[in-house]
Amino acid sequence: MTFVLTEDQEMLRDTAMNFTRDELPVKHLRTLRDSGKNGVDPDARNQLAELGFFGVLIPEEYDGVGMGMVALGQVMEAQGRTLASTPLLQTACIGASAILLGGTEAQKKEWLPKIASGEITTALALDEGTHHNPTGVATEAERDGQGYTLNGAKKYVQDGHHADVFIVVARTFGEAGDTHGLTLFLVPRDAKGLTVQTLKTVDSHGAAHLTLDGVHVDDSHVLGAPDKGHDLLEPVLDRGRIALAAEMLGSSIAAFEMTHEYLQTRKQFGQLIGSFQALQHRAAKMFTEIELTTSCVSAALSAVDEQRNDLAELASLAKARAGETVHLVSNDTVQLHGGIGMTDDHDAGFYMKRARVQEALLGSASFHRDRFARLNDF
Amino acid sequence: MAYDSPAELEAFRAEVREWLEKNCPPSMRTPMTEDEVVWGGRREKFKNPDSKVWLERMGEKGWTAPTWPKEYGGGGLTRDQAKVLEQEMARIHARPPLFSFGLWMFGPALIEFGNEEQKKRFLPDIVMGRTRWCQGYSEPGAGSDLAGLQTKCEDKGDHYLINGQKVWTSYADQADWIFCLVRTDTSKKHEGISFILFDMESEGVETRPIKLISGSSPFCETFFNDVKVPKDQLVGEVNGGWKIAKRLLQHERSSISAGGFGSTRGSGMLGPEEYAKIHVGTDKDGKVLDGDLRGRIADHMMYAKAFNLTVKRSGEQAKAGQEVGHTASIIKYAAAKMNQDKFELMIEALGTEGLGWEGEGFDKGAKMATRGWLRSKGNSIEGGTSEINLNVVAKRVLGLRDHQ
């Protein structure tokens, strides 16, 4: 387990931090919201592609930069700091990982260069209820000669409103709740029978509900072994959870820095409010939580690169801890700013709204506590 | 600091491994119960005779204090070499040969602030475990506000004369010597404090154990009545003791919390998740039946894991030459919370089995858990209360100022 960045990783981190600070600040998200863009920005996507961020996990032979998960974590933290709405989690992490871990050589050659170049974005269409539940898939995939026919519905698909290709999890065997019988399919956005309902979400990033009504998928678009999709899904989800935890850490740090600054400028009773012990202790506790979560995120990121066998446990640790931390910090950010924190003009609300979406995606803290307990055999 | 090449380190590792193989008695490679811990000093009984041999051998190598300079009896190892020694000891499950406030707290401060004669006089006996030290800091009127201490130290020409009272002196009744904060100037607060050393057998020293809510007595009240101390036993400048005191507190906080107040492994106590499985029961999938308790135990275990990863991260970053003061400052606070939460959950999971006190009818481990739960309440008080620690984070790390 390594907690110290290499020189290359440091450089990437600096690049990412400067990029989101200068090009994608919270103000940018606010502009996207106010102009009705629902978190979608093609220019930003091009810039991310030019910087090579889509190919961080993708090996050089497929046109990526092959820097690994610790490196991607730095980019995710940077986007979390400014709440930047980008396709990186779904495409650079989840999409790339699904194809790298589950794809045939032909699929890798077909899809990975397109992801690395920013030509296509992907979105995982898994959950069907209001809570993350990887085995709760009821969407059916029925054999139809040269492929499968998909019928079902997916809820709150992150990036679903703009993704070019969906990674749809459907059931080829068994029933909702079964681990066995899941299969992953690559479904292009323009597939016949696929309906995308764009959602306006509280965090202004947007999302989509999907309806699959007799969508035909060729065998060449099956990702991984039929019926054994769960074995592929788990490591892919864990990479997504870890990357998302890194993003959440970034959001927590930025919200805390904003609050820390306010404590040192706002005066009441003739004193800086940061001189009141009640507020000092709240700040010190937030700082402590952030320090602890930083360690969990670093450990989980490096566990991917080192292919450690406690990856699942570390992923749940990182996601749960990051969820609790961003929850605490975003709430305290509003409270410690007082009235100004309740106004739409201030950024505090953006952090809190985004925090709740981050917390729910890929499993809440409660989901991961349960998983952590199961992995620890109680 | 000397630089070790990987090849040099590996050569050193081989040397250490061979030496340990020859010199660490087999019985010193087994888990240790609390009454087998060796604290050294005049009163040490060495319950297991092998532990005496083990201490002597390690002490002669200077490996009880691996990074202290050789001229004071230390091992003279670089930080990397010390790490190798630690790893090799862990590999064979070697017991620490010596527990010692001299090693953890006083020695490092004396190396920094003592004069040559004092270092030569006191450090080798710490390394060899011949002198057991105690810490005279808190007083009845000076707890969190330590600098308010009143124990009087008067200059009587050829000696100092000490009068006053200390409290919460850990193991004062077992110690040979004390390092003590005393007031040499009553007109100033912080600048009127000196750091002085004396023998606990000096005339006028009296100790009285304090019985805690847990039933144990690790602390004493300590009384000084006209205690005469030779003048060469004052460390640093007269009235210059506060800076030494603060440095020593840093050593204390990091040694208290490095292991998160010690592990329960090998003690006969089980973790909260094990107690929940036994006493609350599980469903057919092996899940603890009380879902609320199960979630809180998982939350605690995650906190503990986050804590351990943070200690590790801080160590790695320090090794890489990065600034880690920020991280270190939260360790004591987090360690206290973690340990208290663990014991609360153990007691809750044990149900009435966790509410025994002594005698028959209760599991031995469960009774230890009950006592440990009570003892853990002190974790957020001793060595700086959690509130004081949060003040330190707010002021020193976050730069938040006091009222103007």
UniProtKB/TrEMBL annotation, chain A:
Name the coenzymes or cofactors required: FAD
Q: Which residues form the Acyl-CoA dehydrogenase/oxidase C-terminal domain?
A: 228-374
SUPFAM superfamilies per the record?
A: Acyl-CoA dehydrogenase C-terminal domain-like (SSF47203), Acyl-CoA dehydrogenase NM domain-like (SSF56645)
What are the protein's UniProt keywords? FAD, Flavoprotein, Oxidoreductase
Superkingdom, natural source: Bacteria
Position of the signal peptide: none
Pfam families, alphabetically?
Acyl-CoA_dh_1, Acyl-CoA_dh_M, Acyl-CoA_dh_N
Q: Which residues lie in coiled coils?
A: none
Entry's Gene Ontology molecular function annotations: acyl-CoA dehydrogenase activity; flavin adenine dinucleotide binding
The Acyl-CoA oxidase/dehydrogenase middle domain, residue ranges: 133-214
Keyword Flavoprotein belongs to the record: yes
Residues forming the Acyl-CoA dehydrogenase/oxidase N-terminal domain are 6-119
PANTHER family (UniProt xref):
ACYL-COA DEHYDROGENASE, ACYL-COA DEHYDROGENASE FADE28
* Family that this chain belongs to: Belongs to the acyl-CoA dehydrogenase family.
Per its record, how is this protein called by name? Acyl-CoA dehydrogenase
Organism encoding this protein: Henriciella mobilis
TrEMBL record, chain B:
Q: What SUPFAM superfamilies does the annotation carry?
A: Acyl-CoA dehydrogenase C-terminal domain-like, Acyl-CoA dehydrogenase NM domain-like
List, alphabetically, the InterPro entries matched.
Acyl-CoA_Oxase/DH_mid-dom (IPR006091), Acyl-CoA_Oxase/DH_mid-dom_sf (IPR046373), AcylCo_DH-like_C (IPR036250), AcylCo_DH/oxidase_C (IPR009075), AcylCoA_DH/ox_N (IPR013786), AcylCoA_DH/ox_N_sf (IPR037069), AcylCoA_DH/oxidase_NM_dom_sf (IPR009100), Mycobact_Acyl-CoA_DH (IPR052161)
Superkingdom of this protein's organism: Bacteria
* Keywords recorded for this protein, A-Z: FAD, Flavoprotein, Oxidoreductase
Q: Name one GO molecular function term.
A: oxidoreductase activity, acting on the CH-CH group of donors
Provide the Acyl-CoA oxidase/dehydrogenase middle domain boundaries.
Answer: 134-227
Gene Ontology cellular component list = plasma membrane
Acyl-CoA dehydrogenase/oxidase C-terminal domain sequence ranges: 239-398
* Gene3D superfamilies xrefs: Acyl-CoA dehydrogenase/oxidase, N-terminal domain (1.10.540.10), Butyryl-CoA Dehydrogenase, subunit A, domain 2 (2.40.110.10), Butyryl-CoA Dehydrogenase, subunit A, domain 3 (1.20.140.10)
All copies of domain Acyl-CoA dehydrogenase/oxidase N-terminal, residue ranges: 7-129
As cofactor, the record names:
FAD
What is stated as this protein's family in its record? Belongs to the acyl-CoA dehydrogenase family.
- Kindly provide the name given to this protein in its UniProt entry: Acyl-CoA dehydrogenase
The protein's organism comes out as: Henriciella mobilis
Phylogenetic lineage: Bacteria, Pseudomonadati, Pseudomonadota, Alphaproteobacteria, Hyphomonadales
